[in-house]
From TrEMBL:
<dbReference type="InterPro" id="IPR041371">
    <property type="entry name" value="GH92_N"/>
</dbReference>
<dbReference type="GO" id="GO:0030246">
    <property type="term" value="F:carbohydrate binding"/>
</dbReference>
<dbReference type="GO" id="GO:0016798">
    <property type="term" value="F:hydrolase activity, acting on glycosyl bonds"/>
</dbReference>
<feature type="domain" description="Glycosyl hydrolase family 92 N-terminal">
    <location>
        <begin position="28"/>
        <end position="271"/>
    </location>
</feature>
<dbReference type="InterPro" id="IPR008928">
    <property type="entry name" value="6-hairpin_glycosidase_sf"/>
</dbReference>
<dbReference type="InterPro" id="IPR014718">
    <property type="entry name" value="GH-type_carb-bd"/>
</dbReference>
<dbReference type="GO" id="GO:0006516">
    <property type="term" value="P:glycoprotein catabolic process"/>
</dbReference>
<protein>
    <submittedName>
        <fullName>Glycosidase</fullName>
    </submittedName>
</protein>
<dbReference type="GO" id="GO:0005634">
    <property type="term" value="C:nucleus"/>
</dbReference>
<dbReference type="InterPro" id="IPR005887">
    <property type="entry name" value="GH92_a_mannosidase_put"/>
</dbReference>
<dbReference type="InterPro" id="IPR050883">
    <property type="entry name" value="PNGase"/>
</dbReference>
<keyword id="KW-0378">Hydrolase</keyword>
<keyword id="KW-0732">Signal</keyword>
<feature type="signal peptide">
    <location>
        <begin position="1"/>
        <end position="15"/>
    </location>
</feature>
<dbReference type="GO" id="GO:0000224">
    <property type="term" value="F:peptide-N4-(N-acetyl-beta-glucosaminyl)asparagine amidase activity"/>
</dbReference>
<dbReference type="InterPro" id="IPR012939">
    <property type="entry name" value="Glyco_hydro_92"/>
</dbReference>
<keyword id="KW-0326">Glycosidase</keyword>
Length: 805
């Protein structure tokens, strides 16, 4: 339970926060492969309550626009791929006589389109039942309105412990129900509640077995029957009787609760510790007598005060407001804050889970501020807590992985990109209670220790659970041979990872470590094959063995999957991805003009006949390795082309509608790219540098915490007038196409853009720093200058600033 002072403070904040939640469209990206979760959740909430539908293919978030409902479950993820995760702790309304709950009551049709908004979800089923959903952080609420009674109708709620989201991809990633318990308890005259647990494994990260406990209460008199199946796969019943408890390790089980009245409310809590804690969670967060309207309002208030109110504008353009606040919404569904619910070890540290995956989200530039509790640039989602959780996982399990879900590491697609997250936080002054020496030790583990092969069929050449499994080649040769899958794309990522180690080492005064990892950060150059040619250009990142380069088409990556040389992007795309060493890349491409020509070819329609759904360009807005490419023009002072290309991508492939994403959301990565585009900045992860674009709004204010704000204004802007004519930073004229963290975020600031319909040559200053292109001493000195590392080290340990009321 929250203390009274916290409740009063939250109520006061909600009363003063505008209702910006009305602009967030919670079904954005729910169709067309976006895989977003349209159900109900608090910001980073543990419970994500929503529907599961069956269509014969993978329902990653549980939701599908067609198909039959199979349950409404408490745990989901949003915008993930690979294979579905969760879809557990299920309730399903049933109308009519039920002889066999395993075969008769497992699905229902959709009678009308579902309704979803922040904090509320409503489904109309073919049976005539209307189901409304709301959620707190660790509990959910179901309100059932059954159809008018008739002689043959019966009203039931099926609780299926064995329910999971299935996978049909055939990759061995399907989840398994491994056993569980359900116990029905009396709670007064003719009333019952139930508790129990289910144990499951697998999903996209190939998780080891994990257990969730539940506690469900009904507000209406009921009768019940518990049931036990013959085995896990069968719909045959072994028992269906009024037995208070069943436990099983080899068969499906659950309970069917039957009611006489047409309106029934159910409150369900979950916990990863115990059923008693699940009951405490539901009773503390949704006490008996709480209305769905109240829970709905509380969730809306939480989103308004904790997320949406941090970014405000006076704009009245509804479409752009929808995109702005929908992006913020989907950026804050994952990871999941499971603090206090970690069953693996006792710790006073926070615990965050469901990290899908740093390979995806690190490219959205997890830029954070150092305000109260080290708040992020854009939202107060306790980034410091996430970092402390990562370090605590390393302390107890030995590794900070690229991905983690259900208390298990897994799905390392490339490098050890947790290193990038740490470095990004470091150069932006995040600290507080975070032990940076332990954080750096976890990075060194990734950089030096070869993880044990976990025998993942997707990649038999090394571990996909944690670490960098291609380290033997990286350390021996300075490049990665095809002995290891994804050799070229991993070489690029290992270089960036090592640069991030060098950055943190510089700030910690570890000069030998800085020199070592700075040198290794240039190893991507060892994969540059000057003889690879395509479309009139020479030189691309290519596969090589100890005997030399292998033949490779720059416009092909084979299947672009786990066992190929390149992962989820073409050689052409990956050849732009050494963002810490762009000046050297420009030289390799033949100088600034040829670099610009190569970038322009990337966006030329019709030049690529491969698997490219976006006008057959080489640029793919649905793949993270292309995220930064439109902004690389800034490195050669062609800022107007960065604006032209990035604005075209945003306007062409993003829209505030269910199919409004250019591919899988990837846990908010796509939405984050759009948000930064709308703000007019592009952050480079692990560097204190922001490349300048063009804001969409005439005014925008970002609350940075600690009494600081960033105010962005534009004049002369219109739908067809978005080129920057001039810029003033903190009141002074600006001639560079980039900014540093220190310029506008460390203490707040102002950006004043003048926009127009034609390009203007205003970026006459030096290009963005390309640190790995410098000597080691030059790079270290520049890092200290532009990142203010000494000042940041002081800020990391300073007490939070108190703002005047």
């Amino acid at each position: 339970m929250l203390p009274l002072t916290a409740v009063v403070a939250a109520a006061a904040a909600a009363a003063t926060s505008p209702d910006l939640a009305k602009y967030a469209l919670t079904d954005t990206g729910s169709t067309g492969g976006g895989n977003t979760f349209p159900g109900v959740s608090r910001p980073l909430g543990m419970v994500k309550l929503g529907p599961d539908l069956y269509v014969g293919s993978d329902s990653y978030s549980g939701y599908q626009p067609t198909g039959n409902f199979t349950g409404f479950t408490m745990l989901h993820e949003s915008g993930t791929g690979g294979a579905p995760k969760y879809g557990v702790v299920s309730q399903m309304p049933v109308v009519g006589k039920v002889e066999n709950p395993l075969s008769d009551a497992i699905n229902d049709t959709r009678a009308a389109p579902d309704h979803t908004e922040v904090g509320y979800y409503k489904a109309r089923l073919g049976s005539g039942t209307v189901l409304e959903l709301a959620a707190s952080n660790k509990a959910g609420m179901y309100t059932y309105t059954f159809p008018k009674p008739n002689e043959s109708a019966g009203f039931h709620v099926l609780v299926d412990v064995s329910h999971v989201l299935s996978s049909y991809r055939g990759q061995g990633l399907e989840q398994h129900y491994l056993g569980g318990n359900i116990t029905v308890h009396e709670q007064g005259a003719d009333g019952y509640y139930y508790t129990g647990f289910g144990t499951y494994d697998n999903g996209w990260n190939r998780a080891a077995p994990w257990t969730v406990y539940f506690c469900g209460r009904f507000d209406a008199p009921a009768t019940y029957k518990t049931f036990l199946g013959v085995d896990k796969a069968s719909d045959k019943l072994a028992e269906f009787a009024t037995e208070p408890s069943y436990e099983s390790s080899s068969a499906r089980l659950g309970a069917l609760f039957s009611f006489r009245q047409t309106t029934v409310v159910s409150r369900v809590g979950v916990s990863f510790i115990s059923a008693e804690k699940a009951c405490s969670n539901v009773d503390g967060e949704i006490p008996e007598g709480t209305s769905l309207r109240t829970v709905r309002r509380q969730t809306r208030d939480a989103w308004n005060s904790d997320v949406f109110s941090r970014v405000t504008t006076t704009s009245t353009n509804t479409t752009e407001l929808n995109q702005l606040y929908s992006a913020l919404y989907f950026m804050h569904l994952l990871p999941t804050n499971k603090t206090g619910e970690n069953p693996l070890w006792d710790s006073t540290e926070p615990y965050y889970d469901d990290i899908f995956t740093f390979w995806d989200t690190v490219r959205r530039a997890l830029s954070r501020g150092r305000g109260r509790s080290s708040e992020p640039v854009l939202t107060p989602t306790y980034h410091e807590e996430l970092l402390r959780s990562m370090v605590d996982v390393w302390r107890h399990q030995g590794w900070v992985s690229d991905a983690r879900s259900s208390f298990a590491n897994g799905a390392v697609q490339g490098g050890s990109n947790a290193d990038n997250v740490f470095a990004d936080a470091f150069v932006k002054g995040v600290g507080g209670k975070l032990n940076w020496h332990d954080a750096f030790a976890s990075m060194v583990k990734n950089a030096e220790a070869v993880p044990v092969n976990n025998d993942d069929a997707r990649d038999p050449t090394g571990s996909t659970k944690e670490g960098r499994s291609a380290l033997p080649d990286w350390l021996a040769h300075g490049f990665i041979t095809p002995k290891f899958s994804r050799s070229v794309s991993r070489a690029v990522e290992y270089s960036v990872n090592d640069f991030c180690l060098a950055t943190v080492a510089a700030g910690l005064g570890r000069l030998a470590d800085f020199a070592k990892y700075f040198g290794r950060s240039r190893n991507w150059r060892n994969h540059w094959n000057p003889n690879m040619t395509a479309l009139g250009f020479s030189g691309f990142l290519g596969p090589r063995d100890v005997g030399g380069f292998l033949e490779q088409d720059p416009l092909s990556c084979g299947g672009c999957y786990w066992r190929d040389h390149y992962y989820q992007a073409l050689p052409w795309e990956y050849s732009f991805n050494a963002h810490h060493d762009i000046a050297h890349l420009v030289e390799l491409c033949g100088g600034e003009e040829r670099f610009v020509e190569r970038l322009e070819m990337t966006f030329e329609p019709g030049v690529f006949a491969g698997n490219a759904p976006f006008g057959h360009t080489l640029f793919n807005p649905g793949n993270e390795p292309s995220f930064a490419t439109p902004y690389l023009y800034n490195y050669v002072n062609r800022q107007h082309l960065a604006v032209k290309r990035s604005r075209a991508v945003a306007k062409s492939y993003y829209a505030p509608r269910p199919d409004g994403l250019p591919g899988n959301s990837d846990a908010g990565a796509m939405e984050s790219w759009l948000l930064w585009n709308m703000l007019g900045l592009y952050p480079l992860t692990g560097q204190p540098v922001f490349l300048i674009g063009s804001p969409w709004f005439s005014d925008l204010t970002i609350d940075l915490g600690a009494c600081m704000k960033l105010r962005v204004t534009t004049t002369g802007g219109a739908e067809d007038a978005f080129y920057v004519q001039s810029l003033r930073v903190n009141g002074a004229p600006w001639n560079k196409g980039w900014l540093t963290w220190q310029d506008i975020f460390a203490r707040g600031g102002t950006l004043e853009f003048e926009l127009g319909s034609e390009p203007a040559n205003w970026t006459t200053g030096p290009p963005p720093p390309s640190l790995a292109s410098l000597t080691s001493d030059e790079a270290r000195n520049m890092l200290h200058d532009i990142a203010g590392l000494k000042e940041h080290r002081r800020a990391c340990t300073a007490p939070p600033k108190t703002c005047p009321t």
